[in-house]
TrEMBL record:
CDD domains: REC_hyHK_CKI1_RcsC-like. This is Response regulator. The lineage of its organism: Bacteria, Pseudomonadati, Pseudomonadota, Gammaproteobacteria, Aeromonadales. InterPro entries: CheY-like_superfamily, HPT_dom_sf, Sig_transdc_His_kin_Hpt_dom, Sig_transdc_resp-reg_receiver. GO terms for biological process: phosphorelay signal transduction system. It comes from Oceanisphaera psychrotolerans. It is a multi-pass membrane protein.
Length: 261
């Protein structure tokens, strides 16, 4: 880590979802980079203040301080003669590009889930003397239609241990988030339901649980619109897709003993 810092190649990643953390750290390692992870914007700001980072990759939706607040705080503090490249990680690229134009503090953005070759090109563009690593697209293999592992393989390659570890982490966070979402729904807290659905949507897309991600996206949209009455059928749909995803992941983790039940 100290060597990467000394060469001006150390990357700071601000991301609160553990599945996405694991995936992006592995992607950066494949590309030849070292990185530190902050679980929220406030933690990322403190790390930036304490160390020399070459670039920041930041999610937008995080607790305590979001990505937009983080970018603005850094711009206010860095002063003349300094400029940290800040890349937003988002599913809403068009909105972020408008924010870049409006001077939000971001330099560029990447669409989540992040393709490995696209990430490599972005780092090469923004980091002086960035290393170029040839990235081969992994061969597509048949996978469950509930959890399409080909999606995850395109992000992290064919390392089965990494794939299984990402699935295992997702399984744990999925169960925890599902419990929190149900509790928020029972309390009538549509805002919290939407926030949890947003986080689940991002992680689900990363592992290839695309139908489940779509159901989360629908929940998020209805919650943003404040349509509490429209939640009930979507919650039922969410639960059905959740059961399918949990079963699919359990079946794929059992062969190597990584199931977390």
């Amino acid at each position: 880590m100290a060597e990467a810092r000394g060469k001006g190649q150390l990357i700071l990643v601000a991301e609160d979802d553990t599945t996405n953390q694991k995936v992006i750290l592995h992607q950066l390692a494949l590309l030849g980079y070292r990185a530190e992870v902050a679980a929220n914007g406030q933690d990322a700001l403190q790390r930036w203040r304490q160390g020399e980072f070459a670039l920041l990759l930041t999610d937008l939706h995080m607790p305590q301080m979001d990505g937009l607040q983080l970018a603005r705080a850094i711009r206010q503090e860095e002063g003349k003669g300094r400029h940290l490249p800040i890349i937003a990680l988002t599913a809403d690229v068009l909105s972020v590009r408008q924010r870049i134009i409006d001077g939000s503090g971001f330099d560029d953005c990447l669409s989540k889930p992040i393709q490995l070759d696209v990430l490599g090109d972005m780092l090469h563009h923004w980091l002086p003397g960035a290393r170029e690593v040839a990235v081969e697209a992994p061969e597509r293999v048949p996978s469950s239609t509930v959890v399409e592992l080909s999606v995850l393989r395109e992000l992290v390659g064919d390392d089965e241990q990494i794939i299984q570890a990402v699935l295992s982490d997702f399984q744990v966070s999925l169960r925890r988030s599902a419990i929190a979402l149900r509790e928020a729904y029972i309390k009538g807290d549509a805002r919290q339901v939407g926030a949890i659905a947003h986080q689940l949507k991002s992680a689900a897309r990363t592992v290839g649980a695309l139908a489940f991600a779509d159901s989360c996206a629908e929940l998020e949209t209805v919650c943003k619109a404040g349509q509490q009455a429209g939640l009930t059928p979507l919650i039922s749909q969410f639960e059905r897709n959740l059961t399918l995803v949990e079963t699919s992941i359990e079946e794929q983790l059992i062969p190597i003993g990584l199931n977390n039940r």
